[in-house]
# Entry
Amino acid sequence: MKISLFSTRTQPALVVSLTAALAAASVLAPQTALAHAVLLKAVPAANSTVTGPDVAMMFQFNSRVDAARSQISLVDASGKTEALSLDKQKALDLLTTHAHHLIPGKYAIHWQVLSVDGHITRGQIAFVVN
# Structure
């Protein structure tokens, strides 16, 4: 004699109910943030030395970024911060700008972008101008 907790009539209903519950959970559960903007390449590169006084800057991300809601600023060794205006966006995953009249010394680029998933990503890149 086979003993079961559920009758043969309730087993199909249970399977359907569990399947529906799992499907609903997968739809309603927070999704993994695969679209966060991750910086893939930067010019100047982190900890690099570049020639001034004018420095072109480029930031390439793994996903589209909203240039209108993104910010790039330059901080010099004394802590003075200058907001840099972004060039017209040539590709949806790329931001470019320029810094002019830099004197030799240490600098840090602070960047903040809004990615397509609606999350803000931030970072900084240290470099030296000679």
About this structure: Residues 18-33 have pLDDT under 50 and may be disordered. The chain has one domain: 39-129.
